[in-house]
Every structure is written in structure tokens, then in C-alpha cells.
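so my prof wants the structure for this chain in the C-alpha cells format not the other one, which i didnt know existed until like an hour ago. anyway here's the sequence
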Amino acid sequence: MSSESTPFWTQPNVEPKRKFRWLLEFANTPKFIVKSVTKPSFQIQTTQHQFLQHTFKFPGRVTWQAINMTIVDPVEPDATASLFGILKNAGYVIPSEISAGPGYETISKVKMVSSLGNRCLIHQISAEDSTQITETWALVNPQITSVNFDGLDYSSDEALNIQIGLEYDWAELNPAAEGSPTRGGTPWTLPEPTST
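here's what i got, hopefully its the right format
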């Protein structure tokens, strides 16, 4: 009997990916302070062509969408100081430090990407063992677009959070460079391409 004809609930090896089984590698951020992260997503633009009373649509460019992450701001290591350090490493100079020569520095893509470690990795781990990675997304050329250091409130005893917005050029699923023999499952059977 094939696995397609066997009900999934009778197969002990069927395990859904779970929202809480993941680890983030981002600019050497300690893994334990990361609270949440959105996974990559993409949009495919569509170009329309009109002929008589008909409209035909053609796929266009793929655009990868920004992700957001939330981290806790501990005293040690100081996440606020670390993020401000990333900003300065990317080329930002506060006005009081501007001087002739090197002081006329600005943020550049190469310095921003380098200050974040060139890649951001989102690993989803298996139920059996955290060394078994079921899925990895690699965000290539990550760049911080926003940082929100949360607000202060006398009526709350909650931990301070930091929200970070991140753009990237593209994402790769299970890249060979991050290879692991246990990474990834088998895709469902895809339709054969047809020529018409």
C-alpha cells in the first residue's frame, strides 16, 4: 500500500513543523534573547497585456519581502548597545563626531551587510534532536531597516523588547553551503512541465 493511500494519522513518522522549534543566527545575537521572527516571503509581480476585450497576465519579477524579529533587551549582553554598534560599524557617524577626513563617512551596503555577518539564518529543528535541522532559510545580504527600542512604563514589569526590521536581496531554502545530512524533507510530487 502506498503512503498516499495510507491515512497520514496512521504513519508515526509524520510530524508537522512547529512554531516553537527554531533557532536564529543573526549578527552573533545570543540565541536565548530572540523571541520571534517572521520567515521569508516573496511576491511575484504580474504584467498585463490587453488585446481586444481580453486581458492576459504574465509573471514578472520576484520581490522578497522584509522580515521582522523581536528580541529581549538584557542588561548583559546589552542588546541596545550591540545594535547601536552595528549602526556605527555600518558607517553611521553621529553629528558631534563629524570631522574632516574619515569623519565624512556614510552608511554603505557593504559595511551594513558585513556588520551583520553577510547572512541571517533561520533554522527549524526536529522534535527528536536540535542538531537535526528540518529547514534552513538563508537571507542573503541582510540590511537593518528599522529598530524600535520599546517604551518605558511605570505600570508594567514586563521585559523590554526590541523590534528589528530586516531587508535582504534574496533568500535560499536549505542552501548547500549550510549543508546538513538531515536537512529538509521530500517535496510532494510536482507536476511535469508541459510545452504547448
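also thought this was worth mentioning. The two ends are 35 Å apart (CA to CA).
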